[in-house]
From TrEMBL:
The gene is prsA. GO terms for biological process: 5-phosphoribose 1-diphosphate biosynthetic process; purine nucleotide biosynthetic process. It comes from the Bacteria. Its EC number is 2.7.6.1. Belongs to the ribose-phosphate pyrophosphokinase family. Class I subfamily. Involved in the biosynthesis of the central metabolite phospho-alpha-D-ribosyl-1-pyrophosphate (PRPP) via the transfer of pyrophosphoryl group from ATP to 1-hydroxyl of ribose-5-phosphate (Rib-5-P). This is Ribose-phosphate pyrophosphokinase.
Length: 317
């Protein structure tokens, strides 16, 4: 199958995540498309596609994290270059969809930036978007092109299962992650609980109570994004106070901003599993609790399914 696909579509990548791009290409038995991405002296992006793409279907992989403004602009320019080179289709693969948390007007006179990003991708020439665990599922509706939002929970659940074999309960760190926790609980065939919290400010969270019994159990905290780590660490502390044994975490996107890594290292969390939708930063490399789980094989399979017009939802349902 890879040989047939290799002769039928091209895979390009921006500069946001070279390791994941290379791993996906290897899984697909492809070489990454030739593209030269540099900077002009004034720091504008200088980009050129170095091979013919006329009439071909292209997949473009770029994660929008760590330097989201730069990587988003780079992605838009690459899409535009491919469209102007007469490509047949541009399937944009965005492991982490930056700006996804800005999906509504939280305050007066604020933008809905996730909608703006959707407009920009469409205007640039994207014909389809493939992404992983959108923070706000309604962002799919911001597009007028097909969007495949696949879920990494099955990949992470497999790793969790190999580390904890009994007395497991899945805990949602807050109300927003209840559905995700329920999905993990269904996969792992166990119960789930919910942490009820009050957010004091953007960095500080106060736990009110835990709805469910974690005493004497191994806890899995499940969430889609870890940014400052305040939510997941406060949930871990609450679980430990309520008598939990081992505490694990499974998160799709690890932003780890500010002192997030330090918080995790000092927290009751024993192991923190995170997929590699976002590159590992220097701050994480010396962490003893954080374990990266590759989603390259999973993402490669989704790309194959998109190209061969198979059901992508079957990957995660």
């Amino acid at each position: 199958m890879p040989d047939m696909l290799g002769s039928s579509f091209l895979l390009f990548a921006g500069t946001s995540h070279p390791e994941l791009s290379a791993e996906v290409a290897k899984n697909l038995d492809l070489k990454l498309g030739k593209v030269n991405i540099q900077r002009f002296p004034d720091e504008e992006i200088d980009l050129q596609v170095l091979e013919s793409v006329r009439g071909r279907d292209a997949f473009v992989l770029q994660t929008i994290a760590l330097d989201p403004n730069n990587y988003l602009m780079e992605l838009l320019i690459l899409i535009d270059a491919l469209k102007r080179a007469s490509v047949n289709s541009v399937n944009v693969v965005i492991p982490y969809f930056g700006y996804c948390r800005q999906d509504r007007k939280a305050k007066p006179r604020c933008p809905i930036t996730a909608k703006l990003v959707a407009n920009l991708l469409e205007k640039a020439g994207a014909t389809r978007v493939l992404t992983i665990d959108l923070h706000a599922a309604q962002v799919e509706g911001f597009f007028d092109i097909p969007v495949d939002n696949i879920h990494a929970r099955s990949v992470l659940a497999d790793v969790v299962q190999s580390n904890v074999d009994k007395d497991l309960i899945v805990v949602a760190p807050d109300a927003g992650s209840v559905k995700l926790a329920r999905d993990y609980a269904n996969i792992l065939q166990t119960d789930f609980a919910v942490v009820d919290k009050i957010r004091i400010n953007s960095d500080e969270v106060e736990v009110v109570t835990i709805i469910g019994d974690v005493k004497g159990k191994n806890v899995l905290l499940a969430d889609d994004i870890c940014s400052t780590a305040s939510t997941i660490v406060s949930a871990a502390k609450a679980c430990r106070e309520k008598g939990a044994k081992r505490i694990l975490a499974a998160v799709t996107h690890g932003l780890f901003v500010g002192d997030a890594v330090e918080k995790i290292e000092k927290s009751p969390i024993d192991l923190f599993f995170v997929s590699n939708t976002i590159p590992k930063t220097e701050k994480v490399k010396n962490a003893t609790k954080i374990r990266y789980v590759s989603i390259a094989s999973f993402l490669s399979k989704a790309i194959r399914f998109v190209f061969s017009k198979e059901s992508v939802s079957s990957l995660t349902n």
